[in-house]
C-alpha cells in the first residue's frame, strides 16, 4: 500500500480564476476636489479656476488620474470638465471616480474582452479572496454572465471550500 500524498484539488480538473490577477499593477494618481471647496461644501468658480491654473499638473505626467470629490458637496459637471481640460494633455488616462472604481472598471473591461473559450465545458472556480485589490460583486457578476453559457459548473471561493453557483443541466 502506498502512502503517497495525492493533491485531490490538482487532480480534480478544476480551473481557478483569480480576478485580482487581472488588475493593473500600477496605482492611479488621485485628484480630489475636496481641498478646492470653500467650507468643505461650496465650489466657488473663480477660486476654483485660479487654483487649477496654479496646480502643478506635471505631477501626473503619463499616469492614470482618478478625479472625484470625497466630500458630499454637490459639484457641478463643468468643474470636472475644467479639470479634464488641464489634465488631458498631461495624463495617460483620465477617469472619473475613485481608485477602487477605476480598478473595477479596468477589471470589467478585461472580462468583456477576455477569451473564454478555454473554459468551455470546464469546472471553474472564481477565487473569492483578494489580497491585492478590491474585487467587488460587479466583477463576479460579469464573470458569471460570461461563463455560465459555456462552463460545466461554476463555483465561488477556494478549491478546498467552494460555494456552488451554477451546474450545467444534464443532457445540455
Characterise the protein shown here.
Helices cover 30% and strands 20% of the residues. With 172 residues, the protein is α/β, with parallel strands linked by helices. It folds into 2 domains: 8-24 and 101-165, no CATH class; 29-97, no CATH class. A 4-stranded mixed sheet has the order 1-5-6-7. The protein is elongated, with a radius of gyration of 23 Å. It starts with 7 loop residues before the first helix and ends in a 5-residue tail after the last strand.
Question: How is the topology of this model organized?
Answer:
Elements: H1 8-11, E1 14-17, E2 29-32, H2 45-54, E3 64-68, H3 77-87, E4 93-96, H4 99-113, E5 123-126, H5 137-147, E6 153-158, E7 161-167
Parallel strand pairs: 1-5, 2-3, 3-4, 5-6
Antiparallel strand pairs: 6-7
List the helices and strands in order: HEEHEHEHEHEE
Helical amount: 25-40%
How many strand units? 7
Distance between the termini: 40 Å
- Subunit organisation of the chains: single chain
Brief digest:
With 172 residues, this protein is an alpha/beta fold. 30% of the residues lie in helices and 20% in strands.
Give the key terms.
three-stranded parallel beta sheet, 172 residues, 2 domains, 30% helix
Amino acid at each position: 500500500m502506498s502512502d503517497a500524498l495525492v493533491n485531490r484539488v490538482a487532480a480534480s480538473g478544476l480551473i481557478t480564476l483569480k480576478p485580482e490577477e487581472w488588475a493593473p499593477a500600477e496605482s492611479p494618481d488621485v485628484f480630489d476636489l475636496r481641498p478646492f471647496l470653500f467650507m468643505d461644501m461650496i465650489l466657488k468658480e473663480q477660486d476654483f479656476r485660479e487654483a487649477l491654473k496654479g496646480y502643478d499638473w506635471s505631477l501626473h505626467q503619463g499616469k492614470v488620474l482618478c478625479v472625484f470629490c470625497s466630500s458630499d458637496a454637490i459639484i457641478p459637471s463643468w468643474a470636472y470638465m475644467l479639470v479634464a481640460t488641464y489634465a488631458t494633455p498631461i495624463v495617460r488616462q483620465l477617469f472619473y471616480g475613485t481608485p477602487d472604481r477605476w480598478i473595477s472598471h479596468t477589471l470589467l473591461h478585461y472580462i468583456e474582452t477576455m477569451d473564454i473559450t478555454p473554459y468551455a465545458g470546464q469546472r471553474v472556480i472564481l477565487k473569492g479572496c483578494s489580497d491585492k485589490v478590491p474585487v467587488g460583486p460587479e466583477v463576479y457578476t460579469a464573470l458569471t454572465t460570461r461563463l455560465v453559457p459555456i462552463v460545466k459548473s461554476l463555483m465561488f471561493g477556494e478549491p478546498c471550500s467552494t460555494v456552488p453557483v451554477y451546474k450545467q443541466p444534464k443532457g445540455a
